């Protein structure tokens, strides 16, 4: 059975990278760099899932 | 309100479509028998089933509806999670899962057949099959309408595109594919909406700033429940605890095959029992992601921050709380993630209904009454055909809802009558060996009648009272809670009375199905976090603390 952490991890890594490419985009009502922070968090989450999947494969 | 998506937003939507279809494609090689397709052959790890258990209930109507309730009623909406879900999730994990999983029943209606008789199974299977189709259709209809309003997409395109994607991935990998995608959808929903909650609260001046701008009654979950007149929900403590916290909540989380099916797909009895317990942790956090933004939206409106809740005739359009916040607080990029998260929540709701429908139809209706004793290959083909048929019927239901909105309201009301007494049947069936099939069937029908008559004889917000008006409730929510209480008590009493007057099954036929005649699973040498009892205690303590903290 496929390790689900692999596709989900890849998905979120790509999503995080996409958000970082539009880091400068501004929302109507806030100057907080939302894409930078959220993209970073999503990227870290995706990478963590990939690491866990890799570790499980080694065991 | 209209959203203009940028290229990156469309790219994110496309990425999501590619991944959900890809997961279906990779899972398809594991589907060889009807059990692989319909039940995942009890093969999935507990972290997957736990998140799917939660995601199957996390449809977009719930996400948007809870945000709207947050803006309208405030923290009393938390009760739908901390009172109206978590205690029932503890109960199903600790006490009921040993019977569902241990009996090797493939569905909840099949458990009813083993425990009671064919007629009780048929009543549950038929009503459940019809309900899932209409629920899935309502989900598609809501998606079509929302995207028409927000993105300017045509209703037809939205409905057909979402249906086609759900069809392809469930047809390829069956329940496993649906569950795997529910996990992806769950993470996406959290990633898509959690930043919105943080931004909205920050913009409203933090928790203290938010509390300063809205009435005190909206910042407490229990404090104003003393009487129905002192809170905006129009409910009082007994109605909330007995109606929502017991009858409706336990009726849904403990007996609805849509959620129970996720736990039954787990790879061991221990994993099946821990599924709802582990799901309870994210469930306890969800109010901060879906309800708090609604409360913050009201605070933002009152502080003149440049944001205002959309208006409609007669006041605020609370249903648009979530989407209006997204439009103003998300730039392109996160806007795409938010829209994709909404799409994911619609799809997880749809796929959950379709996979529950195809299992109940194939095993409980087709195999039981239409063509028994066929080769497994035949049932696998029927299951796949039922998936196509289920999606086609859901599309038809979506168009029916578009044409005749009132019909869907009536149908949802009828379904609430059917669901209300169910938990009494299961409670007696699992914990009292004297309960008989005749008792269960008569009790269920009486409970449904009890709910119907209560609705016919009471009025709330102009609804009900079609027989006579003997009582007026301050809100439809209070009416629903009391309708459920009456249905449950009627079913409970009639089931006991008829059971005592009829002959019960012999003990040997009830082994594995009833408490006292079933060997309960032992904890073994697992560490505490893998054992059911300690986990249940931790969940119970955390939920109690949350209730106290936001009293």
Structural commentary:
The complex is a heterodimer of chains A (59) and B (551). Chain A is an all-alpha fold and 59 residues long. Chain A is 71% helix and 0% strand. Chain A is built from two helices and no strands. Chain A has helices at 5-21, 34-58. The longest helix of chain A is centred in the C-terminal third of the chain and has 25 residues, at 34-58. Chain B is mostly helical and 551 residues long. Helices cover 72% and strands 2% of the residues of chain B. Chain B is built from 22 helices and five strands. Chain B has a three-stranded mixed beta sheet with strand order 4-3-5. A two-stranded antiparallel sheet of chain B has the order 1-2. In chain B, helix 11 (237-255) crosses helix 19. The model of chain B has no long low-confidence stretch (mean pLDDT 91).
Short description:
The complex is a heterodimer of chains A (59) and B (551). With 59 residues, chain A is mainly alpha-helical.
Assembly context of the chains: heterodimer
Taking the alpha carbons of the first and last residues of chain A, their distance comes to: 16 Å
In N-to-C order, the SSE pattern of chain B is HHHHHHHHHHHHHHEEHHHHHHEEEHH
Query: Low-confidence stretches of chain A at least 5 residues in length (pLDDT < 50)?
Result: none
Rg result of chain B: 23 Å
What is the average of the pLDDT values of chain A?
93
Measure the end-to-end span of chain B. Answer: 36 Å
Structural class of chain B: mainly alpha
Total E-strand runs of chain B: 5
Low-confidence stretches of chain B: none
- Tell me, briefly, the overall form of chain A: elongated
Fraction in beta strands of chain B:
under 5%
Give the beta-strand count of chain A: 0
- Total of DSSP H or I helical runs spanning 4+ residues of chain B: 22
How does the overall form of chain B come out from the CA principal axes?
globular
Helix content of chain B: over 70%
Write the SSE topology.
The complex is a heterodimer of chains A (59) and B (551).
Chain A lengths: L4 H17 L12 H25 L1
Chain B lengths: L6 H21 L6 H6 L6 H10 L4 H14 L5 H4 L3 H17 L5 H8 L2 H34 L3 H49 L2 H8 L23 H19 L1 H8 L4 H22 L1 H11 L8 E2 L2 E2 L4 H9 L4 H37 L5 H28 L1 H15 L2 H10 L5 H21 E3 L2 E2 L6 E3 L2 H26 L30 H18 L2
Helix pairs in contact in B: 1-9, 1-16, 3-9, 3-12, 3-13, 4-14, 6-11, 6-13, 6-22, 7-8, 8-9, 8-16, 8-17, 8-18, 9-13, 9-14, 9-16, 9-17, 10-14, 11-19, 11-21, 12-16, 13-22, 16-17, 17-18, 18-20, 19-20, 19-21, 20-21
């Amino acid at each position: 059975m496929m390790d689900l952490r692999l596709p989900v991890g890849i998905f979120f890594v790509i999503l995080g990278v996409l958000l970082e490419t539009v880091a400068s985009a501004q929302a109507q009502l806030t100057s907080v760099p939302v894409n930078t922070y959220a993209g970073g968090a999503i990227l870290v989450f995706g990478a963590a899932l990939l690491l866990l999947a890799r570790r499980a494969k080694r065991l | 309100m209209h959203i203009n998506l940028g290229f990156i937003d469309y790219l994110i939507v496309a990425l999501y479509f590619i991944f959900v279809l890809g997961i279906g494609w990779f899972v398809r090689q594991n589907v060889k028998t009807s059990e692989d397709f319909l039940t995942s052959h009890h093969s999935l790890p507990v972290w997957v089933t736990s998140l799917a258990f939660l995601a199957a209930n996390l449809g977009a109507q719930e996400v948007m509806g809870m945000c709207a309730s947050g803006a309208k009623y405030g923290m009393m909406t938390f009760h739908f999670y901390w009172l109206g879900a978590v205690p029932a999730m503890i109960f199903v994990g600790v006490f009921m899962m040993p019977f569902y999983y241990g009996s090797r029943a493939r569905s909840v209606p099949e458990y009813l057949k083993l425990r009671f008789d064919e007629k009780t199974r048929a009543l549950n299977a038929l009503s459940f099959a019809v309900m899932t189709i209409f629920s899935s259709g309502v989900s598609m209809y809501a998606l079509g309408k929302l995207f028409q309003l927000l993105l300017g997409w045509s209703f037809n395109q939205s409905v057909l595109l979402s249906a086609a994607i759900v069809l392809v991935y469930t047809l390829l990998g069956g329940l496993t594919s649906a569950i795997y995608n529910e996990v992806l959808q769950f993470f996406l929903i959290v990633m898509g909406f959690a930043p919105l909650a943080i931004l909205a609260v920050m913009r409203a001046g933090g928790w203290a700033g938010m509390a300063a701008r809205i009435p005190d009654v909206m910042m407490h979950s229990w404090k104003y429940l003393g009487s129905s007149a002192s809170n905006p929900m129009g409910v009082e403590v007994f109605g909330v605890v007995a109606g929502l916290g017991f009858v409706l909540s336990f009726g849904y989380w403990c007996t609805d095959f849509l959620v129970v099916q996720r736990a039954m797909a787990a790879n061991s009895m221990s994993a099946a029992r821990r599924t709802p317990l582990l799901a309870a942790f994210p469930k306890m956090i969800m109010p901060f992601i879906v309800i708090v933004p609604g409360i913050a939206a009201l605070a933002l409106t009152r502080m003149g921050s440049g944001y205002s809740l959309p208006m409609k005739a007669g006041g605020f359009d609370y249903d648009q709380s979530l989407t209006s916040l997204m439009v103003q607080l998300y730039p392109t990029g996160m806007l795409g993630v938010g829209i994709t998260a909404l799409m994911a929540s619609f799809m997880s709701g749809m796929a959950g209904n379709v996979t529950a429908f195809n299992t109940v139809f194939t095993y409980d209706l087709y195999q039981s009454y239409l063509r028994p004793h066929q080769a497994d290959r035949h049932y696998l083909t029927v299951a796949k055909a039922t998936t196509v048929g289920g999606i086609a019927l859901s599309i038809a239901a979506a168009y029916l809802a578009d044409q005749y909105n009132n019909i869907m309201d009536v149908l949802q009301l009828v379904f609430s009558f059917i669901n209300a007494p169910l938990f009494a049947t299961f409670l007696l069936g699992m914990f009292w060996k004297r309960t008989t099939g005749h008792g269960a069937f008569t009790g269920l029908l009486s409970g449904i009648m009890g709910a119907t008559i209560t609705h016919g004889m009471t009025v709330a917000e102009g609804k009900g009272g079609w027989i006579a008006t003997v009582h007026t409730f301050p809100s439809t929510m209070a009416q629903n809670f009391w309708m459920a209480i009456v249905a449950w008590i009627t079913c409970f009493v009639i089931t006991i009375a008829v059971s005592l007057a009829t002959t019960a099954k012999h003990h040997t036929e009830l082994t594995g199905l009833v408490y006292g005649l079933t060997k309960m699973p032992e904890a073994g040498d697992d560490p505490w976090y893998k054992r059911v009892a300690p986990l249940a205690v931790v969940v119970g303590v955390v939920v109690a603390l949350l209730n106290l903290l936001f009293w």
